[in-house]
Design brief:
This protein is of the alpha+beta class. Helix content is 21%, strand content 18%. It has helices at 5-19, 104-107, 161-166, 179-191, 214-223, 240-244, and strands at residues 41-43, 113-116, 126-136, 141-150, 153-159, 169-174, 249-252. The termini are far apart.
């Protein structure tokens, strides 16, 4: 039996709009330079190199944890073309970023969820996960690295104060989450780097999933750690807004 035209239109046109979270409906910035393969970044909160120092078990909001003064990119003016360097950056910082005057470096923790309200024309928003605070030898500064599913696929990107403002960003943190659960979630997402972006009418838990959309991969990563950020059944999609409305997460103050 042929499906009614109305059903076909809803399926083909409306549903993708509800669950898409591609780079804020702006694919032009997806073509930012690919990250180089050299390991020039030293991570503070996780391990890309053997010499890393971790502070994720501490409270990053305390200035006693790490002093970023003089290493927050204060020397760099705001770049008018900074957006060209936000996405798909790999493991290297592509441009000097000024974090001076913001508290992103001090407040953000590995595993935090970044919500951008402007994602997909403001309909669904967009979410990414904080991989950690890293140090760039080239630019002599610390910066925030995130992982997100965007039009080029699952990729590393950077989060800057300007991006937070322009994309109406906010930070959410899972309550009562352990370091083991955070590491498990990050490890899962890292194992999916490079897989393509695609909107699905459900959500996957499998590491063999051929593709991901932004909220799906974050939901799956934490679900596999026993933390369900979506109250719907497993057969339904999960939107970025549903992630941040979960009873398991709280808004983090950046004031």
């Amino acid at each position: 039996m042929k499906r009614p035209l109305r059903y076909i239109l809803i399926t083909v046109l409306i549903v993708p709009l509800l669950f898409a979270c591609d780079i804020n409906a702006d694919s032009s910035s997806d073509s930012a330079s690919e990250g180089a393969s050299s390991m020039s970044e030293i991570e503070i909160s996780s391990s890309d190199t053997a010499s890393d120092t971790s502070f994720t078990s501490e409270d990053p909001s305390s200035s006693s944890i790490y002093d970023y003064e003089g290493a927050d990119g204060y020397q760099y003016p705001i770049n008018e073309n900074e957006e060209d360097y936000w996405y798909n950056t790999g493991i290297d910082l592509s441009v000097g970023v000024n974090y001076h005057g913001s508290n992103l470096l001090e407040v953000l923790r590995r595993g935090d969820i970044i919500f951008e309200a402007t994602g997909f024309y403001g309909i669904t928003g967009h979410v990414a996960i904080v991989e950690g605070i890293y140090y760039s030898n080239e630019y002599q500064q610390y910066y925030v690295r995130i992982i997100e599913a965007i039009s080029v696929g699952v990729a590393r990107s950077i989060l800057t104060p300007t991006r937070m403002v322009e994309k109406e960003g906010s930070v959410y943190r899972i309550d009562d989450v352990s370091e083991t659960e955070i590491e498990g979630a990050i490890s899962f997402i890292l194992s999916q780097l490079g897989k393509p972006y695609a909107v699905e009418y459900g959500k996957s838990l499998s590491s063999d999933s051929p593709n991901w959309y932004c909220s799906e991969i974050i939901w799956a990563a934490y679900y596999l750690q026993g933390l369900n950020l979506d109250d719907d059944n497993l057969d339904s999609p999960v939107t970025p807004r549903e992630i941040i409305e979960s009873s398991l997460v709280s808004l983090v103050s950046l004031a």
